[in-house]
Amino acid sequence: MATAARHTNPDTFGDLFSKHLTDRLKLLLVYAILIIATAQTIYPLFWMVFGSLKTDADLFNNVWGPPRTMIWQNYVDAWRIADLGARIGNSIIITVLSLTVLLIVSSIAAYALARLQFPGRQAIFLIILATMMIPPEVTVIPLFIVVRTLGILNSRFGLVFVYAGTSMAFSIFLLRGFFMSIPPELEDAALVDGANRLQVFWHVVLPLARPGLATVAIFQGMFFWNEFFLAFIFIRQAELQTIPLGLVNFFYRYSADWTLYFAALSMVTIPVIVLYVAMQRWFIEGLTAGAVKS
Amino acid sequence: MITPAIILLIIFVIIPIVYGFYLSFHRWDGFSSPVFIGARNYIRLIERDDVFLKAVTNTIIFAISVVVVKNVLGLFLALLVNQKIKGVIFFRTALFLPVTLSFVVIGLLWSWIYNPTFGLLNAGLELLGLDSLIRAWLSDQATALGAIITVDIWKWTGFHMVLFLAGLQSIPKDLYEVAIIDGANAWARLTRITLPLLAPVTFISVLLSLNGAFVRNFELVFVMTDGGPNHTTEVVLTHLVTQAFRFGKLGYASAMGFALFVVVAVIAFTYIRIGRSGTYNF
Question: Nearest Cβ partner of B20 from A37, A141, A226?
Answer without folding.
Answer: A141
